Amino acid sequence: ELTVRIKDEL
Amino acid sequence: MNIFRLGGDLAHLLAIIILLLKIWTTRSCAGISGKSQILFALTFTARYLDLFTNFVSVYNSVMKVVYLAAAYATLYLMYVKFKATYDHNHDTFRLEFLILPAAGLALIINHEFSIIEVMWTFSIYLEAVAILPQLFMVSKTGEAESITSHYLFALGSYRALYIVNWVYRYYSEGFYDMIATLAGVVQTVLYCDFFYLYITKVLKGKKLQLPA
């Protein structure tokens, strides 16, 4: 997985 | 976004507002650990670097900016505006004992060895233990003002609600983040003793005073 991990939490 | 996550964010926001209001209205930061506040400012700074690289939602960006602004405003009030009321004699926890292990662990255990991921991981580990100087201060003085204990309760509730959110997300969407969850559990466990005292004493109108 090369995409940047989307961190939707604060 | 589920109700637990929203509740967690709001509890976090409430904690930050309680603290700022307490300092502002009493013109004093007595009983508050500046060391913990430094760690929280560091936590948000390291975690929200993606504010400039990743857009998630307006809610997400606004909350990040609010948390960051509030963290630095708190530091300003404590170390500049109301510096004279800062109880540094009781705030003696050594920050390097928390920052260095958190940084070391972030370099070893992370999702990906990149600057933004390592900084994010560092912030997760650091946040888990950031409250220790504050709890240490309360145990040193043996008591906390009611408003300080409301602040701590709201702050502890935030990560506890996030845990429920993670359990919910695991079952509803198969989402899980082992690093955030384990650190979140550690963070919440640190508050357990305080939660017990808060429920048995503060909610019954008594001052939070540690047993001698």
UniProtKB/TrEMBL annotation, chain B:
Compartments where found = Endoplasmic reticulum membrane
Question: Which keywords does the record carry?
Answer: Endoplasmic reticulum, ER-Golgi transport, Membrane, Protein transport, Receptor, Transmembrane, Transmembrane helix, Transport
How is the protein disposed in the membrane? Multi-pass membrane protein
Taking the first listed entry, what is the main subcellular location of this protein, grouped into a coarse class?
endoplasmic reticulum
GO process terms (BP): protein retention in ER lumen; protein transport; vesicle-mediated transport
Q: Where do the TM regions start and end? A: 6-25, 62-80, 92-109, 115-138, 150-168, 174-199
Q: Which InterPro entries match?
A: ER_ret_rcpt
Q: Which GO terms describe its molecular function?
A: ER retention sequence binding
The record's GO CC annotations read: endoplasmic reticulum membrane
As for family, the record states: Belongs to the ERD2 family.
What protein name is recorded for this chain?
ER lumen protein-retaining receptor
Lineage start: Eukaryota, Metazoa, Ecdysozoa, Arthropoda, Crustacea
Please name the gene that encodes this protein: LOC108673442
